[in-house]
Amino acid sequence: MEINQVQLKQVDNQIKRLVACGNFYGKKLKEAGINGVASVEDFKKLPFSEKEDLREAYPLGLMAVPEEEVVRIHSSSGTTGTPVIIPYTAKDVDDWGIMFKRCYEFAGITNKDRIHITPGYGLWTAGIGFQYGAEKLGAMVIPMGPGNTNKQLQMMMDMGSTVLCATSSYALLLAEEIEQRGIKDKIKLKKGVIGSERWGEKMRNRISTELGIELYDIYGLTEIYGPGIGINCKYDTGMHIWDDYIYLEIIDPVTGENVPDGTFGEIVITTLVKEGAPLIRYRTHDISRIIPGECPCGSKFPRIDVIQGRSDDMMKIKGVNVFPKQIEEILATFPELSSEYQIRISHLDGKDTMRIYVETNGHVDFLEIARRVAETVKSRIGFTPLVKVVELGVLPRSEKKSKRVIDERYD
Ligand code: ZN
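Output (structure tokens, whole complex):
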């Protein structure tokens, strides 16, 4: 999905503004001799930026407007070092609200809905983003924040919440509690808007079946406004991305080259109209792909697939980029296999190879199922793995999350 002329002009404006204001980013661009983009080729030559770069700008080095124009900051969690601080102008906050409102609309949510918000409020962008979008929509917000399951369920019943905003893990917990307490008939939920984390089809089905609701995946990250830069529509064919506010491209995480639409790679985002802290070619490390073609809903907003994991998990096998989740999803389609598996990557005779160990009970033909798994991987991902089927209980189990991917190439 190549950048169009309008977007290119917007990026050019952002770069000129950054260089002129001389913020952290502007200085970097100036040092690299960049003061604008006039063509698609120019855009492709722009350097990427990384979370590490943004950390270096702590605390307010990313601010690209005079301080009087900044109305708020948000921060990404600092669990792995210095946090990143993103300043927002009034227009940035408003733009974010407009995008979030659009997300609710794509999910068929209206001003007659009662929106129960469980993500946290505070420095990070979760709760407040869900709230502002809902207010712009004119819906009734129930601003719960996280935790206190008793109170959550009580309010959900008393207020008749119709939309649940949550992480996938919290939505699952609530679903299980509702089931256990036998209060399902008192719950009015119709839809769930779930913050994008990596979650499997099985978990998704459990939440939607137990709560009896339609689920919508919302995408976003603190560095780029927050959640709300894209969501799937009711046809559930990927998340529509608001390309009037951001330009999204997919690159090969190793070479940095753009990959063709339909191919998995790393999401890179450029903001188009952000004032407080514009970002140019920001590497998210999230893995997805552009879904080619048009959505049955008729919307022209481009679509990306469900987030497949982090680029740090990527493997390159026989020239094909592979992510553990892709293999996981294929294995999940074989009811004969247990949920345990192991993927081992090694370098043999000058080539990367993948071995997949799976478990099944003694009643199926091991060779036959190994052949079918290998064929499915070949047809869906493009290379043939070695598949080894073992007896149920042979693969290691551990209390903690088992290590399922073992890369032996660099031992
Ligand atoms: Zn659609």
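The longest strand covers residues 337-348.
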